[in-house]
Write a structure and sequence with these properties.
Blueprint (H helix, E strand, L loop, with lengths): L2 H17 L3 H21 L6 H12 L8 E5 L2 E5 L12 E7 L2 E7 L3 E6 L6 H11 L5
């Protein structure tokens, strides 16, 4: 999905929220999501793969995922979800990333778990597919 498509979808959401009187709530939630990405990035400063992780997060930011997915972490695991608040309940879907020097394990947990290991830390078509699936889930 290209940036222009994501931008059009984002504008549609804002228009829909404005009509229903929820524009301020939507903006507030988006700000929370963006803040969560900044917070997680700061946590990774002590990680041995900090530069690679930040480059990876920036590639996702460039596609607008920081505005629609909450970032969180558990130990050194980066987790992205549609959670309204920090912390996941058992039934909430999420995508996770584990980083080691020049390697990344990523997974998508929903009713089933899919996991792949990549030789580099980068945004791949498989990961984008998971993120696009997740971005259209309900915020819970």
């Amino acid at each position: 999905m290209d940036e222009s498509h994501v931008s059009r979808l984002h504008k549609k959401l804002h228009a829909r929220a404005g009509r229903s009187g929820n524009l301020e709530k939507l903006k507030g939630l988006e700000e929370q999501f963006v803040h969560s990405w900044n917070w997680v990035e700061d946590l990774y400063r002590a990680h041995p793969c900090y530069n690679e992780v930040v480059a990876f997060m920036n590639s996702m930011r460039a596609k607008g995922y920081h505005k629609c997915l909450r970032a969180g972490q558990s130990m050194w695991v980066l987790m992205l979800s549609r959670a309204l608040h920090h912390g996941l309940s058992q039934d909430q879907p999420y995508v996770y990333f584990c980083f080691s020097k020049n390697e990344m394990t990523a997974g998508f947990c929903d009713k089933t778990k899919k996991e792949l290991t990549f030789p580099t830390i980068e945004l791949t078509p498989e990961i984008e597919s998971w993120l696009n699936d997740l971005r259209y889930r309900m915020i819970t």
